[in-house]
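Protein in question kept underneath.
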Amino acid sequence: MTHRRIVIGDVHGHYDGLMRLLEAIAPSDEDSVYFLGDLIDRGTQSAQVVKFVKQSSYHCLLGNHEQMLIDVLGDGEVYGPALQGWLYSGGHATVNSYGEAGIPQGDIDWMRSLPTHLDLGDIWLVHAGVHPQIPLEKQSAEEFCWIREEFHSIAKPYFPDKLIITGHTITFTLPGVTPGKLAQGNGWLDIDTGAYHQKSGWLTGLDITNNLVYQVNVLRGRVRKLSLSEAVTRIDPSQVGRMRRHMLRP
């Protein structure tokens, strides 16, 4: 059997949906599975998601929601403005998922250890994207975990020989993309199809090796398998600036 490379978009606390997605993908011990970050927040099962991924052999990147948690709890301190921002962005659901015992320091330390990006040769994985005007070695988690418009509007690929695969920005907030579709721009592919969002509900896994897309709708229970060509919409980067009126919370 061919060794597959599988990339999974923003889970956002949907453990049951993730289990259904992995059941559909059926990764073998020889396959490599990569999570693009944002395992937590918004959904009600963040603690279960973190426990599962942490104990697995799968790879995971740092997302902006893990970064927000670290900023609030990483040093054992609770900071007012940062705390309010995190709770507003779905952090309360993560806190509730851990119950009275609270979030263990081991989980916080694990999140802090997550890389911001992974280079797979022909594929470059990152949660949000890269800043086209800043040399790669000078970029930080701020760019890798948070960037949106500057990245999606690039006129030419950032890497001449690598496809950047991201999550972070729900695809239907990009021009011309309908709920559940992946979004493709110049040298990048966004697979965050908005598992937590009432307008979508789709959690996506991408089999890079075979150009297959697996999706589970966490709201409606549907499961589907599509070719990448069926699942993707190519956007016009010149129209990206107009998406601001559709911008969601972090």
Q: What stands out?
A: Residues 5-246 form a domain with the Purple Acid Phosphatase; chain A, domain 2 fold (CATH 3.60.21.10).
